[in-house]
Amino acid sequence: MRNGTRARRADFHAALIAAGLAAVASPAVGQQDTTRLPPGVELEMRYSKAGRPLVAVRPFTVSITGAGPAARVTEIVSNDLTLSDRFEMLPVTESLAAPDSLRYDVWNSLNVVYLITGDVQPSGSGYQLLLTAHDVVYGREKQSGTFQLPGEASADFRLAVHAASDALVKWITGQPGMAATRIAFQRVNNNSFDIMTVDYDGENLRRLFGSPDMIYSPAWSPDGQRMAYAQKSNSQWQLVERELASGRTRVLARGDLVSGVSYAPDGSRILFDLWVPGRGVAQGLEVHAWEAASGRITKLTESTQDNMLASLSPDGRRIAFLSTRTGRQHIYVADADGSNARVLTPFGERVQYNGPEWSPNGSKIAFHGQSQGTFQIMVADATRPGGQVTQLTSRGENQDPSWAPDGRHIVYTGAGAEGEGLYVIDTTTGNIRLLTRGRRLRFPDWSMSLATPGVASQ
After folding, report:
1. Does this model's pTM top 0.85?
2. Which of 46, 101, 171, 369: disulfide with 353, CB 3.0–4.6 Å?
């Protein structure tokens, strides 16, 4: 009997991998026939770039003799504003780059709505960046602030500049930015399972740690100081939390199978999937919560089928999760304790949905769903279970969505026009960009802002 249980567990684990919970397929890349989408799914065709204000970034000045990092800082800020997908960017000509070119009438004649100026000066072992956003239409300064930057050799130099860019986005739009963030993901490299990170713009790709044993489902803590993940060690699965600065780890839970790791938005609990044996006529995964205050583990879901991959809403009152309780993989929304579950995704023959994640503002849930033989990134209204689902991608094979803290960008594993890797889509404009190329990259998780407290004074 015990050998039979082991066989079923192994079969389930293999099915878990094959179903796309841990692997990305590599189909031929091409345009899909979008005339026969699954029931209840519509392809997003209403993307618009209209209404984006024209912004110009004048090359930043240096208040003390010596070029310093002014040109580099200007380039980073300009790129951050471009990648925000919120603005049209005006190339600044040499005549407009002069430090005394602050004539609002000239910029207004070019239809510029906001002008960004900056000054970089030495400060201790680093620099101070004075940024100003000018409202060209009204001919006045909109907002300014001073940002402390470390030395150029510091690993956090770019992150500090990104934090300044996020402040600019907030000043102009009133919405959060995403530049001072990183994406964690799993990379399978020969016989090593590596946890990697990359800056939101594709820079600073690096390996945090790895193991010959399976590691997957990395999740950032809300403060960016820790990371939780599932790891197989000595034939047993563990829920592990790692301090990123020191590398110290602690095991929070053990079981026959652990997966689907995610933090509560306030860091008070970690949700994860744990194999539950002997549930009457069935065995399988159930969503559990590890409580940070007590270390207690609570089972949140209960059925004769599998429940997994839970994501807590920003207010902590609801969870979205995958369940096979109807015989198909569907996304459900329930109260935070697992009660009052309602199916979110529309029913249809031969349709599977997977990998839900709640948007930062709580209004949407992203996931990947089967559409004409491949998985594509989809979004549903979190307040309308069973309502219309929007399909965001249509080329290649795309899975494992994770929201940026700005609530409009999603990173995902993809096999698109530029090959296999991690891609980012802007859900407002439809822009798609390759973040980092590579095979067998899985489970991306987008951090919250990693800017250190007190980085800016405004």
Report:
1. yes
2. 369
